């Protein structure tokens, strides 16, 4: 089981002080959060990709390359790589380069994002969102797996005798998760290729999450990649903790009430009841996170959103200390005890490399 943190990189005013961090401060804060994620013993840091205010992470590989140079074991990922509006050739090259620089500590979550205007900004039509996701990813897989590619599709110019450089490290492409919160077509795509499926369930009720993950698991088995319980699933989550749950609720409420994404809507209590958000004591976070298995089955990756809604960096780092010291060790032990034999671990570069070498020997 992999545990980690993801950030969408929003630049949001702190509702308790009225101060808005600068873009430079927010970028440096994301780096500090990544370094803290490794320091407290977690496994993964993932950054979103956005190309509009009030977000800053427009260049995930730049940020992750910098973090790679300052960490030793942290696995670097994306909370979304925009497979629809990025050129698959550029994705292939950028993330292969990051693979080499990080000694294999990289994977990706492919997604379409949640900002409609990004399509025309990059010369695309939002009505082609799903076809773009399907076609671009099919090309990306070939670019990573074939040394010379001839290709023709509907949404970009053809390729003739093209070689993407650098080639993937050790001949092993980065592992890919397909991230979606609402589109069954993306769950189907993940299942078709035998890739991972990440459901960022921070805004959705348990019934919706259950249906999406169940669809992916059924189709994963249908395509012959293994039994449904061997499918690779990741989930998101949001937490805010203090020793006493009343203190956590009191401190977090103004951030929740004014957050751009969910403020001025359902109450904190209603939102916590319906979704993965947990505001309370460390034990409450442990208890609720363990219930996610009842929704998604035995899964391999749990990422937490910690730095949203204008929370100051000092507070976020305090939260990561609590998460690393009091929550993650218990979750590791509990998930290990409850996961049946036969459920695979989350793929890493080393495990994928070993699998490839085993296949070559068998062949």
Distance between the termini: 31 Å
The helix content is 40-55%
Q: Element order, helices and strands?
A: EHEHEEHEHHEEEHEHEEHHEHHEHH
What class do helices, strands and sheet pairing give?
alpha/beta
Estimate the global geometry from the Cα principal axes.
Answer: globular
Oligomer: single chain
The whole-number mean of residue pLDDT values reads 94
List the total number of helices: 13
Fold blueprint:
Elements (H helix, E strand, L loop, with lengths): L1 E6 L15 H17 L4 E4 L12 H10 L5 E4 L2 E2 L5 H14 L5 E5 L6 H4 L7 H17 L3 E3 L7 E4 L12 E5 L4 H10 L2 E4 L6 H17 L10 E3 L3 E3 L3 H14 L9 H7 L3 E3 L1 H9 L1 H5 L4 E5 L7 H26 L10 H14 L1
Parallel strand pairs: 1-2, 1-13, 2-3, 4-5, 5-8, 8-9, 9-10, 10-13, 11-12
Antiparallel strand pairs: 6-7
Helix pairs in contact: 1-12, 2-3, 3-5, 6-7, 10-12
